[in-house]
Amino acid sequence: MNLYIHTIGCQMNVYDSEQIALRLQAMGYQQTDRQGNADLILLNTCAIRDKAEQKVFSYLGRLAELKAQKPSLIIGVGGCVAQQEGRKILSRVPFVDLVFGTRSLDRLPALIHTVQAGKGPVVDVDMTDTLGGLAAAIPESAQAGICRFVTVMRGCDNYCNYCVVPYVRGAETSRAPQTIIDEIQGLANAGVREVTLLGQNVNSYGKKEGFCDFAELLERVSHIDGICRIRFTTSHPKDLSDRLITTFADLEKLCHHIHLPVQAGSDTVLRRMNRKYTRDAYLERIRRIRAACPGIAVTSDFIVGFPGETDDDFQQTLDLIRTVGYDGLFAFKYSDRPLAPAAKFPEKVSEAVKKDRLGQLLALQEKNTFRRNGDLVGTVQTVLVERRGRRLPALEGEGDPWTGRTSGNKVVNFIWDVRGGAGTEPAPGRLVDVTIQRALAHSLWGMPVTGTESTAPGEVDAACGSFAQKMAG
Ligand code: SF4
């Protein structure tokens, strides 16, 4: 039987889709990348961004013909939109067989059995699951890749006024440390070299359950052989502990990049968003991070046009962006979410103003990104090779480029053949020291250090040590 999963949205959804595939393998389903071949189509949805529901319903509309041609085809909708809309999905799209929420993954095989037995449609948006059964998603080594995401906690207790996560993903719940370690060990055995630990607010990891804190979890992950780099996202500024900040200096494998969403630069807007920190408190966190880890790359998220945001508020946001000098950022125009309190806030900002502010903000950041990338020209960066890069016409005849990322999460392209001396060709998973020669808007170009070797996966831990010493020096 063939399974086709269409995933919309964030990395957490990508991870959940892998979890789903793993559970359904045991039922005899194999994944296909051709929708027309599927016996089961699952749509894993996201409600965070604008027009999420419309996207889901228009996708489902396009499946009507397929279902008419093959009535035995099972169609299911899961994720945040399923959690938010529940049974309403069935009344809008009667040929849907299954609606499952964000905490129904362990029950999914049983739900599909019910549909197969002709007892559908079924709806399960119960949120009582505690993640106790969240299995280690260890893929076949052939599919493992070099970099993987691992969810360490789900849900959120912060209730920012614009956000639906606490309503559709439930309260913060952490996985037991040993299940995370076992999963990452399995990934390392399958050839993975870099893991990104995921959670809506990783800084709260383990607090409710009495597990170790997040800094200790990072340390335990760093002891796993074969894993060379560790990243994490996302951090809430109010919960970013001094202990976690010093971890950037102490843990060799922890990459020198932090994503710290601020959302706005005005205290008035931050208060109305219910972010629970001030602009000054945020800037103090940034100062401490940079003191502990000079040169660390800092990125963030912004929302423009939150209800009541004045021109002066927006200028304060631009000022904060100039002050911090981010390496990169994600910015969005505010839009109402059905379950979020801000949907009822008056003083909505017009679309035209939101569009104009977003344009100003992105233009400012483009200059920042270019400048921060330019700061790396002339430095030597250790690059974890991920794949062959895209050939540039200007480099015709120079050989195929390789692409990978620095510790600071910058994409670097380089051509191995132009480097002097012998040495083993790079391959995905190897580490290469590259002198940065050119900064582009979204990537860097460099040349491997003369005579350098690329480092084999088996030598990865030693290479990480030398990389850390270099950074410290
Ligand atoms: S911290 Fe705020 S924005 Fe982030 S998931 Fe929680 S409620 Fe949403």
Describe this structure in words.
- The protein is an alpha/beta fold and 473 residues long.
- The chain folds into 3 domains: 2-124, 3-Layer(aba) Sandwich (Rossmann fold), CATH 3.40.50; 144-374, Alpha-Beta Horseshoe (pyruvate-formate lyase- activating enzyme), CATH 3.80.30.20; 380-472, OB fold (Dihydrolipoamide Acetyltransferase, E2P) (Beta Barrel).
- The protein is built from 16 helices and 19 strands.
- The strands form 5 sheets. It has a 6-stranded parallel β-sheet.
- Helix 14 packs parallel to helix 15 (351-374).
- The longest helix is centred in the last third of the chain and has 24 residues, at 351-374.
- The chain is globular and about 65 Å long.
- Residues 460-473 have low confidence and may be disordered.
- The structure holds iron/sulfur cluster.
Average pLDDT value?
A: 88
The CATH homologous superfamily of the largest domain is termed tm_1862 like domain
- Alpha-beta classification: alpha/beta
Rg, Cα atoms, Å: 23 Å
User: Low-confidence parts lasting 5 or more residues at pLDDT below 50?
Assistant: 460-473
